[in-house]
Amino acid sequence: MQLCNKWNKANFLIANSMASSLRKAVSQRINIVRLAAAHVEKNTCFRSISSSILAAASSQDGEGTILDFPDMGPPIPEYQSRKNETIDQKRARLFYQSRKRGMSENGILLSTFASLKLNQLDEKLIDQYDMVINKPTNDWELFYWMTEKKPTPKEYDNEIMQMLKYHAKNEKMEMRLHQPALDEKTTPTATPKVD
């Protein structure tokens, strides 16, 4: 019985010590966040986010608020369509861009679409496809539009987007685990073949 009491007392002391350390860490975090907010308040270009920082600092429950800061990087330039590009050059460029997206989901969806449809599209649809895959600055937005998880903005809601949405539904239940192989039938080329 005496051993049990010593054990409980030791556990109680450890728990109190841990709780005290946690309270100190939380108060230090709040002080650090308050200092950051004061620094941000002095700098006029960051003033808009200082209220979010102060709101997080005022949280006393230890949980705090998750801060989602605005993108502070340099602005991404708006996409400009290329001038003096032949239709074959544009097809070849779009085929490449459909394969190299930076996220696997779009790489698979767009590369399978491009290998099936890109050679059959007329110039108007090629221009729409160029705008749809290159103008949005966030590939996740494009993915959400194609899979209909988010509504498509009017400027992108065109015939190509409808084709991409249909392709993303995969009603034929085709296996799309990786990008299609590059071959002469599906790969557009910018230069004619010489026999």
In words, what does this structure look like?
With 195 residues, the chain is mostly helical. The protein is built from seven helices and no strands. Helix 1 runs antiparallel to helix 2 (47-57), helix 3 (87-99) packs antiparallel against helix 4 (104-117) and helix 3 (87-99) packs parallel to helix 5. The protein is elongated, with a radius of gyration of 28 Å.
Radius of gyration, taken over Cα atoms and rounded to an integer in Å: 28 Å
Number of helices: 7
Give the termini separation: 96 Å
Secondary-structure element order, N to C: HHHHHHH
Question: How many separate structural domains?
Answer: 2
- Percentage of residues assigned to helices: 55-70%
Outline the biggest β-sheet.
Answer: none
For the record, what is the CATH homologous superfamily label of the largest domain? Flavinator of succinate dehydrogenase
Q: What's the assembly state of these chains?
A: single chain
CATH topology of the largest domain: DNA polymerase, domain 1
List unreliable stretches of 5+ residues. 64-68
Task: Kindly report the average pLDDT value.
Answer: 75
CATH classification class of the largest domain: Mainly Alpha
Structure classification? mainly alpha
The CATH architecture term of the largest domain is Orthogonal Bundle
How would the global form be characterised?
Answer: elongated
The counted number of beta strands is 0
Strand residue percentage: under 5%
